[in-house]
Specification:
By secondary structure, the chain is an alpha/beta fold. The chain folds into two domains: 3-116 and 294-309, ATPase, nucleotide binding domain (Nucleotidyltransferase, domain 5, 2-Layer Sandwich); 126-289, 2-Layer Sandwich (Nucleotidyltransferase, domain 5). The chain contains ten helices and 13 strands. It has helices at 40-58, 94-102, 111-122, 182-186, 188-198, 209-216, 221-245, 255-275, 278-281, 295-309, and strands at residues 3-9, 13-19, 25-32, 63-70, 73-75, 80-83, 90-92, 106-110, 131-136, 140-146, 149-151, 249-253, 285-288. Helix 5 (188-198) crosses helix 6 (209-216) and helix 7 (221-245) packs across helix 8 (255-275). The structure holds zinc ion. The site of zinc ion has 8 residues, from helix 4.
């Protein structure tokens, strides 16, 4: 199998990489999406600029396929990026557009689903048949891998744990319209917003978990508590999944999980202690992704590799 052109379309950043069949990122190019209009034309242009940069660095490689990680709901049957709450993107036939441009097979999926596939192909789940992947980043997402394959559900929306309620006493409103869901309580954005709220400071959209993490690491008690609480909410999702589906583990990825897993771990452990029955306590466990910060880029490559082999 040849190399893959992997496209990780994030909410704030675009990364395009040339990835080997073993999961090594050979070359990559990045573009910042903050302030960029999230339209089909603009994004296609930006993807192409990154692809050209890689083509130049790699000396015109022969790629076997293009793989894409999409930040939101994705119609797998028709290759359409359906929607994303924060950018307003709707109904982009991304597979058709990229096929036309690059004359290669193109495969795409929701970014949490691509990450779950990458963890199976290149990460810590090579020998695991039942798991839940959870992304904790600006938003939260998830994907189930069940009976050794990605579980899509009826419309490819299975595993949307970001919009499952976890806080019922003092819930915050999510962009999706649900109160107290994982994204509203434990995402990087939520952790930043809740810190400002609890310390009586003015709202600031740029203040996120990264800033709270820096404070927590200096011993700030509110910051430490917020990460423990976020861990508890994430642990609550894991415990529910373990009880309902008898899965072996939950793997956490995304910026917050990659950088601040240690700060959330006490909360996660506490939730598992509180909520799991003894039968599951020694069986089910939670761990950090083995793929680091590039899980979603490797995910894009992974879905293309699976697609070619299907
Ligand atoms: Zn939501």
């Amino acid at each position: 199998m040849g190399n893959i052109i992997a496209v990780d379309l994030g909410g704030s950043k675009l990364v395009v990489g040339l990835v080997s069949p073993e999961g090594t990122v050979l070359h990559s190019a990045t573009a910042v999406l903050t302030g960029v209009p999230f339209t089909r034309e603009t994004l296609l242009d930006m993807i192409d600029t990154c692809v050209k940069a890689i083509d130049f660095k790699a000396g015109h490689p022969d790629a076997a396929a293009v793989g894409v990680s999409v930040p939101g709901h994705y119609d797998h049957a028709h290759g359409v990026f359906l929607s994303n709450y924060s950018t307003g993107m709707r109904d982009w036939p991304i597979v058709e557009d990229l096929k036309e441009k690059y004359h290669l097979p193109v495969f795409a999926d929701n970014d949490a689903k691509t990450c779950a596939v990458a963890e199976k192909l290149f990460g810590s789940c090579r020998d695991t048949e039942q798991y839940l992947w959870v992304t904790v980043s600006y938003g939260c997402g998830g994907a189930f891998y069940l009976n050794d394959r990605l579980f899509r559900g009826a419309r490819n929306f299975a595993g949307e744990v970001g919009h499952v309620p976890v806080e019922f006493v003092q819930p915050h409103l999510c962009g999706c319209g649900v109160w107290g869901d994982l994204e509203a309580e434990a995402s990087g954005t939520a952790i930043g917003r809740k810190y400002l709220e609890r310390t009586g400071r003015a709202t600031d959209a740029a203040f996120r978990s990264k800033e709270v993490s820096a404070l927590a690491r200096q011993g700030d008690k509110t910051a430490l508590t917020l990460f423990r609480e976020a861990g508890y909410y994430i642990g609550r999702i894991g415990a529910m999944a373990a009880m309902m589906l008898d899965i072996q583990k939950m793997v956490l990825g995304g910026g917050v999980a990659v950088y601040d897993f240690d700060l959330m771990k006490p909360g996660i452990d506490r939730a598992l202690e509180d909520l799991l029955i003894p039968l599951n306590r020694d069986f089910f466990h939670v761990e950090q992704t083995a793929l680091g910060y590039h899980a979603s880029l490797l995910g894009a490559a992974a879905v293309a590799m699976e697609g070619i082999n299907a």
